[in-house]
Amino acid sequence: MSELSSFFREMTGAVVLGVNPPVHDFTFFDLWAKPLGLLFLLDYLRKRGNRVFLADCIFEGRTGDLSFGRNTVRKTEIPKPAWLAAIPRRYHRFGLGEEDFRRLLESCPVPDYILVTSMMTYWYGGVFSCIDTLRQVFPGVPVILGGVYARLCPDHAKRSGADMIQTEPLDLEFSLPATDLYRGLRYGVLATTFGCPFRCEYCASRLLEPSYRRRNPGLVLEDAARQLSGGEVRDLAFYDDALLAGKERHFYPLLEALNERHPGTRFHSPNGLHVREIDDECAEMLKKRGFETLRLSFESSDPEMQRRGSDKTSDEEYVAALASLRKAGFSGGQLETYILAGVPGQSVESVERSIRFVLEHGGNPKIAEFSPVPGTPSFRRAAELLPGLTDEPLLSNKTVYSSYLAGNMSPPELQALKDLAKGQREGRSKKPKFAKRTAYYP
Ligand code: SF4
């Protein structure tokens, strides 16, 4: 089954358990990530007379506090999957361990339905392990798998053991995400729009959200009030792909209202902001109304890479945006700038030039390692270099795809690029040594 809208529309009087699985990966960091789609669906279902519960393996596996409400998350070393066995790095389960997850489930009422969400395609190991545990604790209860992995890899997801897989966007009237199901969450998450008006060659936004839509402003403010009115939450992360598109009519009035109703709230944009939209007025608005951390979507100073990124910014626009942000009072350290690395056809020298360009103009470069996303033009080019990608999502892991598996750059080259970017963040200026490339294949 793929189109589950009617199934959910008709569901009533049921006990529904939503589950966010653990993550199996080399690295994981809490960038204000919450399973927003699952939370919208749980709220929808409870409004239709169902009782809903949430078991979030990442949140429940938190071990300590980080800045701006984020948490460190428990990690347990696990054996690497066979496909990644040759990678000389440790592999972990992030979030609740299996025994603690089992105990958490046993404290929940026996559900009539279980909804499991998923994120990165190469995190499916955590999803499969989670469904396995659910089967043991709640035998016979139907499991429905949704989320990004299920949408992008529907055939592979059939191996998960789920009874139903949601492979199409849900056509339901969502209003507010059920963030109140969390106890002790120290930050809020907010979407003011869904989808993105651009079409970058390496991004799946258009596949996951075919249309770009603005959310009802009243609902956005109600959503924020629900999360912020208790007084314990001081940080709010925006989930929009294109937060500043059409900003004068949608985002500015919302930001002003949020700042007036919830003074002292610190705002964050973990998804990159579109540089072209940032002028003096915009920078001043962001600063005055409480933005604390920014991520700028620059991605590359290479014209060919800029074309593949929808030509959404130019070198000149980036320099102008930095000047506006500095003038408004943001420090260099706050101006984190995404630089893409490892895209098929992108040279190491091109990444190096982009980093140097950002550093020269006072920005704070942050390398974003490319991961091939099924269904995108970049995935097709990536699969030409590494044909196994089409059948095995583990090979698209961003930590190892370009440096270890595809041979786009060697691990020392990637490290040198990171050092180049990081050196400036730490106030050092050192010339990196780019090691001779030695292709590495498992
Ligand atoms: S602008 Fe960002 S979200 Fe939109 S298509 Fe490009 S990479 Fe994806």
Automatic annotation (TrEMBL):
Its cofactor is [4Fe-4S] cluster. Residues 419-429 have a biased composition (Basic and acidic residues). InterPro entries: BchE-like, Cobalamin-bd_sf, Elp3/MiaA/NifB-like_rSAM, rSAM, rSAM_horseshoe, rSAM_sf. Residues 180-412 form the Radical SAM core domain. GO terms for molecular function: catalytic activity; cobalamin binding; iron-sulfur cluster binding; metal ion binding. PROSITE patterns: RADICAL_SAM. One of its GO terms (cellular component) is cytosol. Residues 415-442 are annotated as: Disordered. Keywords: Iron, Iron-sulfur, Metal-binding, S-adenosyl-L-methionine. PANTHER family: ANAEROBIC MAGNESIUM-PROTOPORPHYRIN IX MONOMETHYL ESTER CYCLASE-RELATED (PTHR43409), PUTATIVE-RELATED (PTHR43409:SF15). This is Radical SAM core domain-containing protein.
